[in-house]
From TrEMBL, chain A:
<keyword id="KW-0813">Transport</keyword>
<keyword id="KW-1003">Cell membrane</keyword>
<keyword id="KW-0812">Transmembrane</keyword>
<dbReference type="InterPro" id="IPR013525">
    <property type="entry name" value="ABC2_TM"/>
</dbReference>
<dbReference type="GO" id="GO:0140359">
    <property type="term" value="F:ABC-type transporter activity"/>
</dbReference>
<feature type="transmembrane region" description="Helical">
    <location>
        <begin position="227"/>
        <end position="249"/>
    </location>
</feature>
<feature type="transmembrane region" description="Helical">
    <location>
        <begin position="51"/>
        <end position="69"/>
    </location>
</feature>
<dbReference type="GO" id="GO:0043190">
    <property type="term" value="C:ATP-binding cassette (ABC) transporter complex"/>
</dbReference>
<keyword id="KW-1133">Transmembrane helix</keyword>
<feature type="transmembrane region" description="Helical">
    <location>
        <begin position="169"/>
        <end position="190"/>
    </location>
</feature>
<feature type="transmembrane region" description="Helical">
    <location>
        <begin position="133"/>
        <end position="157"/>
    </location>
</feature>
<dbReference type="InterPro" id="IPR047817">
    <property type="entry name" value="ABC2_TM_bact-type"/>
</dbReference>
<dbReference type="InterPro" id="IPR051784">
    <property type="entry name" value="Nod_factor_ABC_transporter"/>
</dbReference>
<keyword id="KW-0472">Membrane</keyword>
<protein>
    <recommendedName>
        <fullName>Transport permease protein</fullName>
    </recommendedName>
</protein>
<feature type="domain" description="ABC transmembrane type-2">
    <location>
        <begin position="22"/>
        <end position="248"/>
    </location>
</feature>
<feature type="transmembrane region" description="Helical">
    <location>
        <begin position="27"/>
        <end position="45"/>
    </location>
</feature>
Length: 262, 246
């Protein structure tokens, strides 16, 4: 692993972001719109006396976490798609750059996007709805980390699919995450799902994060089993996804698709 | 003077099948001498691009071996690729970036010691200095070709693989590019493997050509030699003769 190469790819993306309004909007627009939507809804629920005491914390907290997941995934997929769109992939892999360095740079780009988006929506949530993300205290940190890991795993997975099947599969890059959402118990507990779907829910690390997060809100203490399950599952998924990506990459080299990808 | 004739590339019994049946590259072996410009010729679909991509470890060969600088490419990818470069109009530089941003990105990827100076030096050489602050997508084809070539020289490659670099250029710009390539080869002793469908161009540049047809090497030699051997008036007629199997 050579840092100068990771840095090169990362800086190349930052060049692009610094003057691309659509790309900046991609970071901020959706999270802010969702925040407004859910923020006003929770306001309404509160006023109508429909919600419990913690409804704001739970819904807005879920929203922030969900955005972290989706930003993590999108950042990785989009960073890769940029090179596909610009037919630059071949140029990049004609340099000594390794696949692992390429992936690390997209992950770091994801981290930058998340810090930016996270900061903006946390501040807005506080200003508009007096929602303080630090309600979760330091318990927040391991859960955030866990949700990011899962976001990257999802991002690498969709990237592998696009690599293999071309950018006609790019709808996946944007849509795949919504397949996960209903089963991840984002806005409601797992118990709200039918029994058979609960099994699906429990094999997703995201479920354990969202359940764990609600636990923190309800009890004020950290549930280690939830956190532990989330991390164990994350490492399993990340392992599988890395294996998958390398398998796709070597398949693509065999089929000579690196040049034909578009 | 042994080192002058040193082979920089050794390809042995190289085979590529994309599906199980058709051999797109069919058991070819060749060597390339250091410091020379060698032409890789053949009709469309002959397997030139596939061969070049295998030399760059972008396509995995079905069988056979490729050694560059005496090293197996796939097993020494990082080392070999740091001393090789490639350029072709079918590969783009990111078009949303400014030219200097692109060049400095690749300079970083190659860990060029003094990237700014290197970019400026190459910009001077290829006469693209005034293009550096422009967005890449705003350049003309001729300008892009020169930027691409500048990219391909960032790491001072010992071996340069050029796949139809002049294919989309007007005769004037193509001529300038050829002059630049000859100068690079003379000044820096770069070894160049070159594909083109313009036989006059090949005659001007290459001291040796390898003819590829349907994945097989059908001939190999100095352009003048081949013209004599086939009893034709120029390399263009030789090309047609070989392509039609006459
Ligand atoms: N990725 C691929 N999958 C299947 N067939 C391919 C692929 N790439 C090239 N081919 C086929 O291999 C043959 C050689 O192609 P190519 O190496 O591009 O030839 P050239 O560069 O000499 O024109 C052609 O028949 C082409 O259709
Ligand atoms: Mg070709």
């Amino acid at each position: 692993m050579k840092w100068h190469r990771v840095q090169a790819i990362l800086i190349r993306h930052l060049y692009l972001y610094q003057r691309s309004i659509p790309r900046l909007m991609d970071i901020f627009y959706w999270p802010v719109m969702e925040l407004l939507l859910w923020g006003f809804l929770t306001r309404y629920l509160e006023k109508a006396g429909l919600g419990g005491v913690n409804i704001v914390t739970i819904l807005l907290g879920a929203l922030v976490f969900w955005d972290l997941l989706s930003q993590g995934q999108r950042a990785v997929s989009i960073a890769f798609l940029e090179d596909v769109w610009e037919r630059n992939l071949l140029n990049i892999f004609v340099t000594p750059l390794r696949v692992s360095e390429f992936l690390l740079s997209t992950v770091l780009l994801g981290l930058i996007r998340i810090v930016l988006a996270g900061a903006v929506i946390s501040i807005l949530a506080y200003l508009l709805y007096q929602f303080n993300i630090f309600t979760f205290g330091f318990y927040l940190v391991p859960f955030v980390l866990s949700i990011l890991l899962f976001g990257w795993a999802l991002g690498l997975f969709t990237t592998g699919i696009i690599l293999r099947f071309g950018s006609s599969a790019q709808v996946l890059a944007f849509g795949f995450i919504f397949l996960i959402q209903p089963f991840s118990a984002v806005f409601y507990p797992v118990s709200a799902l039918p029994q058979s779907l609960q099994y699906v829910a429990y094999i997703l690390p995201s479920t354990w994060v969202f359940e764990g997060m609600r636990r923190v809100v309800a009890t004020g203490s950290l549930s280690l089993p939830h956190l532990g399950m989330a991390f164990v599952l994350n490492f399993i998924y990340l392992g599988l996804v890395f294996w998958f990506f390398y398998a796709m990459f070597s398949r693509v080299k065999e089929k000579g698709l690196l040049l034909k990808l578009d | 003077m042994g080192w002058i004739n040193e082979s920089i590339v050794k390809v042995k019994k190289l085979v590529k099948k994309f599906d199980r049946t058709v051999k797109v590259v069919d058991n070819i072996s060749f060597e390339i001498e250091r410091g020379k410009i060698t032409g890789l010729l053949g009709p469309n679909g002959a397997g030139k691009t596939t061969t070049i991509q295998m030399m760059l470890d972008l396509i995995t060969p079905t069988s056979g071996s490729i050694k560059i600088f005496g090293k197996n490419v796939a097993q020494n990818r990082e080392e070999v690729l740091s001393r090789v470069n490639f350029s072709s109009p079918y590969v783009n530089l990111p078009y949303n970036l400014k030219v200097w941003e692109n060049l400095s990105t690749f300079a970083r990827l190659y860990n060029v010691p003094n990237p700014r100076q290197k970019v400026e030096e190459l910009a001077e050489f290829f006469d693209i200095k005034e293009l550096l602050p422009k967005i890449t997508s705003s350049l003309s084809t001729g300008q892009l070709t020169r930027v691409n070539l500048a990219k391909a020289l960032l790491n001072d490659p010992e071996l340069l693989l050029l796949d139809e670099p002049t294919s989309s250029l007007d005769p004037d710009v193509a001529d300038r590019v050829r002059k630049l390539l000859l100068q690079i080869q003379k000044d820096r002793g770069v070894t160049i493997l070159y594909t083109s469908h313009n036989m006059a161009e090949i005659e001007e540049l290459c001291t040796r050509v390898i003819f590829l047809n349907k994945g097989k090497i059908t001939d190999d030699g100095a352009p003048r030699q081949l013209v004599r051997k086939y009893g034709r008036k120029d390399l263009n007629d030789v090309f047609i003769a070989i392509a039609r199997g006459e």
